[in-house]
């Protein structure tokens, strides 16, 4: 397998015929090649540009407005870095808005529909230039757990985005149950090695992976994981803040739980708050009944307020364990 740079494309402007530019710069393209195209030149050709001031606070304010318009959901913020989910479903820094390799008074947005862009480019190359290639539209992203950036696929046509190994067996006879390789992401990352970020090589060709392209296929949208299924749908600080908000809003009459709480979960909740409750407050797990809360012996107002706080601490800890709780009025001493 080879990864080949496509040089000589030059700057791309709104309305440019991207298929003609690529075919002219790479007359050696042949059927079965995988064309990996940086999303930026796709966006430029499609006119996905916005004008902003070149300098000063006005530029920052304009960029904030553009970011807000491109954001479907905020994921995490650290200083000036904002990780958001775009309207496409991608989770990216600054919604993929790019200020590099473009005039200072412009920002480049992502293509409106990267899969549609890939299909259109593939069709133009096939119909007008006689070459049947697969197309991947790529961009750069960070990754949870890992430092550094890598290129991934935003759009794809003519290639299956995933190679599904589930149901196959490995050399030791073990059946594979979850292995689904994001092939278009791997090809995007390999192509970045010859494109670079400062060399003005926005297109690469992967040769030898496909014998011939298939139909357009479902596109890279199939790689987008819904927020509800994403184990990292919020940043750490944002998830903690969301949890604190939920703890503050625990209902006094929650719906009945479908299953009783696991005894170990109840014990963990009691242990979690044991070091912060008032002296004299005791929580005792009574299996099959719940948690017996014994208040301090004093019944002055301040002690009772503190006891109510401690009860809420326990309810929050139980909620963190997935256990709903219904407070029952305690029997006070005396």
Automatic annotation (TrEMBL):
Q: Which residue ranges does the record assign to the Coenzyme F420:L-glutamate ligase-like domain? A: 10-208
Q: Which InterPro entries match?
A: F420-0_g-glutamyl_ligase (IPR008225), F420-0_gamma-glut_ligase-dom (IPR002847)
Q: Which UniProt keywords apply?
A: GTP-binding, Ligase, Magnesium, Manganese, Metal-binding, Nucleotide-binding, Potassium
* Keyword DNA damage attached: no
In Pfam terms, one family for this protein is F420_ligase
The record, for PANTHER family, names: COENZYME F420:L-GLUTAMATE LIGASE, PTHR47917
> What protein am I looking at?
Coenzyme F420:L-glutamate ligase-like domain-containing protein
* Species name: Phytohabitans suffuscus
